[in-house]
Each structure stands twice: as C-alpha cells, then as structure tokens.
Amino acid sequence: MNDAVNIQPKANRLIAxxxxxxxxxxxxxxxxDFYVPDGQLTILVGPNGCGKSTLLKTFAxxxxxxxxxxxxxxxxxxxxxxRDVAQKLGLLPQGPIAPEGMTVRxxxxxxxxxxxxxxxxxxxxxxxxxxxxxxxAQVNEFSDRPVDELSGGQRQRCxxxxxxxxxxxxxxxxxxxxxxxxxxxxxxxxxxxxxAHDNNRTLIIVLHELNLAxxxxxxxxxxxxxxxxxxxxxxxxxxxxxxxxxxxxxxxVIRDPHSHRLICVPALPAQTVSRLSKLAAI
Length: 282
Known about the structure:
The chain is α/β, with parallel strands linked by helices and 282 residues long. It contains ten helices and 13 strands. The protein has a seven-stranded mixed beta sheet with strand order 1-11-10-4-9-8-7, with helices on both faces. It has a four-stranded antiparallel beta sheet with strand order 3-2-5-6, with helices on one face. Strands 12-13 form a two-stranded antiparallel ribbon. The longest helix is centred in the last third of the chain and has 18 residues.
C-alpha cells in the first residue's frame, strides 16, 4: 500500500483503527486504518461491493464495527451520544427522499434538528443557518417550491444545503453525483471543493466516476475486497498500475493539456484501434 501523504494521527479529528465491519456472518471491511485529512476533500473509489459505502456508514454510526473503533475528536464515535455526534458530523446518504409536498426550505431546515431540544426551540441562529446554507448551495431562488417538483441536480443541491445547515465541519457524502448529467456533476463537485478549500470543511465522498475523483480529490483512497490498497494524492496513486490492481481495468492515464488534471482513458481492443486508425487516415 502506498501512503503518499504522511498523516499523523494526532492531527486528524476523524480516525479509524483496525476496523472490521460486516453484515451478519459476512465480513466487508478488514483491518482498516484510516486518518481522515482535515480541511480536505477525500474521495473513496473502488469496484462495487468493495466496502466504500460500508466504511462511510461506519464513520456515520449507522453500522457498528465488529472489531476496532472510530474516533471523533479523540472519543469513540459509537459510544458517543447521537446528538453530540450530529453537531460535528453530517451525512448525505445515497438517494434521500423528501416527504411529498415538502418545500426546499422545510427540507433544509431539517438540518437544524441536532441543535433543537425541549429547552431550545427554533431561533434566529437557526434561521440564519438555513438561509446561509441555501445561498451557498444556490437553492434560495426556489426555496418555496416542493422538492419533488425539482430536477435531479436541484434536488441534490437541496440535500447538500440541508447538510450545510447542520453546520458541521465534517461532511460524509455517499455517491452524491449518481444519476446526474455531467454538467450537474461538475457543478456539484465544484461546490463541494469550495466547501473544503474556502470554508475549511472536511469532506469524505464516495464516487464511482474515476475522472471526477482524480480531478477533485485532495486525497484519493482506492479500495478493493474490503481493504485499502492505495491512498495518497491523485498524482501519487492515480496511475495505470493501480487502476489495473483495484478495478482490473486496462487503461492509460494521461494529463489534460488545459487543466493539467489526470484522466483515465480505457484501453481499446486492438481491432478497434486498427479501425479508428484507418478512419483517421481517410
């Protein structure tokens, strides 16, 4: 395994140590040691079933580890109070669904739940947090519209706004770009990158789109069969050898001449290359 970025445990708020996690008698994650870089955008990639979402759910306290532990600010997250964790860590799961007829503002306001109690009802601070979150996610212009009437990209920005309204420094997102058009995917990733780089948020994102992952990750984690095979900057780990080892994918990794970002180009069969060469010669 290539640890291209040297991360000291004491410097990180969210840490996993020797995690073993599974469902019933099936082990999904094995011996996971992971120090999440603070104030950066960390992206998890790997083939289906490799454990990416399971790791995210364990960080979010949805799943309990069979062995090992997750520390948040030095405390075992699975032994902490739910409300205490929710005031520090937000989660956007796959495919969230709003109740029919709920407006954008009502959905975003759900992010303030961890800050409510019998002694603390809705306040001006809650109102400010909701308004700020909608402005950042650019959903304020349709704040009174039902969420189920919006496009896929607009809905996803609403869910991001809800997590932002929670006002946590740590945000976990499970495949937030799924089923979105490429332009909307890019817009959303630009928004998430700004949250990390301009607002000092720590983001952990599960993605399937390899080129998006390479373009936006500060720290890229490659998983296969429940273990972390590679981790580091895209420059260090996003290469043909690792794509073959992790995804069994034959591909070339090239650099875009304009953005200088790394791009994965799948290798074509010899007969396809020959046909394209003949067409180019015409």
